[in-house]
Write a structure and sequence with these properties.
- By secondary structure, the chain is of the alpha/beta class.
- It has five domains: about 5-125, Arc Repressor Mutant, subunit A (Orthogonal Bundle); about 155-270, Serine Threonine Protein Phosphatase 5, Tetratricopeptide repeat, CATH 1.25.40.10; about 270-350 and about 360-445, Rossmann fold (3-Layer(aba) Sandwich); about 450-490; about 505-585, Winged helix-like DNA-binding domain superfamily/Winged helix DNA-binding domain (Arc Repressor Mutant, subunit A), CATH 1.10.10.10.
- Helices cover about 50% and strands about 10% of the residues.
- The strands form four sheets. Strands 1, 2, 3, 4 and 8 form a five-stranded mixed sheet that branches. Strands 10-11-12-9-13 form a five-stranded parallel sheet. A three-stranded antiparallel sheet has the order 5-7-6.
- It is elongated, with a radius of gyration of 38 Å.
- The termini are far apart.
Length: about 650
Amino acid sequence: PTDPLCYNVLVNTHGKRAMLMKHKACLLGVPELFLDGAKVLFPFLKAKLLTFMLIEEKNIRRDKLCEYLWPDKETEKGRRNLSNALSYVRTVIPVQMNNREVVSIKPSLHIARDTDLLSSLDRLSLNEMIKINGIFMDLPEAEDLESFCCWLFPKRQHYHELFVDGLRKRANAFLESHTDDSCEKALECYELLAEREPYNEKIHGELVRLYIKTGQKVKAVDAAHAFSKRIENDLGICTDLSDISSIVNKKSPVLDKQPKSSDDTPLSRSSEILKMLDFMIKTESSGKSSCGLVWGENGIGKTEFIDELVSCLNQRGWESHYVRCTQEEKERPMVPFIQMLQRQKCSLPQSEDISSLSELNYSRLAELVRMNVAASAEESKKKLLVVENIHWMDDASWMILETIMWDYSSPLHLIISGFEEIRPTFMLRTSFETEPFEKFEIALRRFDLEETGQICRAMAPDSTWTEKDIRNVYLQTEGNPFFIRQLLNAGLPVKDGKGIISNNPFVSVIEFSGKDERLFLEALAVEPDHASMLNISKVLDISPLQLSKICENIKNNALVKEKNNDEGDVIYYFTHVKIREALLANMSATRKQALHLKNIEVLEAGISPYQYRKREIYSLLCFHSHEAGLEEKELYWRVMELKQHFKAAH
């Protein structure tokens, strides 16, 4: 808003002529007075203080002025000094003396003061707020006058509280408006608030949450670190903001009411990204090597997580190098690291003895990789090596990674991802627990029913989501983010039953499995739920020991898990329902029929009149007979199951 203007007739000290003048006073920050746009220069400090005291108070007792400005003078001498100062003040503003006791500005005079704008912060632009974001009468030399400070400091506190309260109300008004830019505008207010309240944990906590809400994760972590360091250094205390997870998990009544977008749901993994980013930034200046580990199953979002993390680190000037391991290249030694060096246009070692890439010396290759991914002492830029999907890494690449990590010549920063099943192998091969690395691990988990509901409502806001609909999505996807996205993006009807989702990531994992491994998976897929080790070994005509070796390879691919049962057997089950779907969708009719018939043969041969739990066996026989198209057998075993149930009930 335009500063209010007031034209006043001011008579000079000799009373000879009148002047039309416009008065403007800036009290927030370094105090300044303008007459018709020209800055007034004061001949001495106390004339300046007196002028601005009168502008602020409008009227004040003469004895008080003497007490504030000349406390060390006797009464008469103090009054003479006041009179001398007033003789100059009258040249810039009309001052009158009431009953020789009260000094005041003439009531007809109106001075435009920036302090008057504090009552209308909601109508000001950001630039106008920045202009008045200052300390009341910021004059260091005046602070040496102890008596004057008795008047100054309460005034400062009053206007400080007025400014802070006004900004808070403005920020809350923006947040309650629920517009597209409400969080951005509220953030502008909290950035100013954080400047004015450097030790207020609540304000800085809200600032960090707004940075997170607006997708500025790097600024969120930097703000949290800066506040924690300030509190610890200046006050010697620890704050909750030292742990970024405490900020993410803390509820904010106003912010939690904001509408959620697809980027503001559990799919974004904001909490996990902030924790890893917090770890990387903390170790950035420590001079130590660091390694962040990201574990999770297929489709859980490891690649998206790393891409977002690297994007944040790039904003801080980091340089990232990627090594991506794939199942297709698992049998080709050192290919992931060679591809990384080729992307960097790095010359590979040449020798007459080398006729192919497979004959490269892994130690020489490790040396080249280390030179490219470890920053030297002369470089200010931090370098990051990202190794993705180490569960597909070949043995030679494993040796390169081990060699890189065991080289302590310069700090190394790593981000490594893979299936959680490969974690024990990684820990053992790299001796990670004893290595001088700053370490941090994150395991990306599936979403629960409540989180699945949040994702559904954010990704399909126009749909009416009932609890039954959300539960059906959860049962079809088991909380895996890839399948939730696929199901919702495909617009599939949310109904009871299993929906076939195209682009199933488990298909490629199965396709590249070995012949024996795939046969084991297919034998497990034709079962209604889980299968026992003894049953599958009979169906496949192999020994339990050989079956255990096959299962070990499959477990590292995160397809199957196992557990002991109470009968001395081992139960196998898929890690996700979509693995069975992928197997059945790509299995030939001949293979399915053969496996069902073999299961019937094995189960019928194993029935004993003294065997307990025959009802479960009858149920399995009924299932396999149905899938094999043997209607008479299906009916027979269904009747046997019902008879067994009748006996158990009576």
